[in-house]
Amino acid sequence: MEEKILCKKCKKCGKIQHTSHIRCIACKHEKFDMIENSDVATLVTYTILKAVPAEYQDQKAYAIGIFKFDNEILAMGQITVKENLKTGMKFKPIKSLLTKNLDGKEVHGFKFEPI
After folding, report:
1. H or E segment at 77?
2. With 0-12 CB in 10 A as exposed, 13-18 as middle and 19+ as buried, what is 73?
3. Neighbours of 76 (CB within 10 A)
4. What is the structure's pLDDT at 1?
5. Is the dihedral of CA 83, 87, 92, 94 positive or negative?
6. So what's the pLDDT on residue 32?
7. What are phi and psi of 52, to 5 degrees?
8. In the structure, what pLDDT confidence band is assigned to residue 56 with cuts at 50, 70 and 90?
9. CB 52: neighbour CB atoms within 10 A?
């Protein structure tokens, strides 16, 4: 089964926000419904990292970007490609192996793949 990025939707005002918030950022309400984020995000900005952290030694360089989903939620993540990137491009989040930490344990998360 394909995993989705989850968000919270305020039961009082309907504001959609990241799951880390304990109160609604619009009305301070404390009750939410969990919803799945859309499968499409737009690339807002990006950079190519060439001086990578120790955990990413197996990669000489990689791209990360800021993405905006249809519901206005912003997310940052690795991009599966480094070439031909342009702001405004459409991407889909995919659950993927990001790297292995310094202890050799796999770190999984979402990468963004061009559509």
Report:
1. strand 74-79
2. middle
3. 13
4. 43
5. positive
6. 98
7. -85, 150
8. confident
9. 14
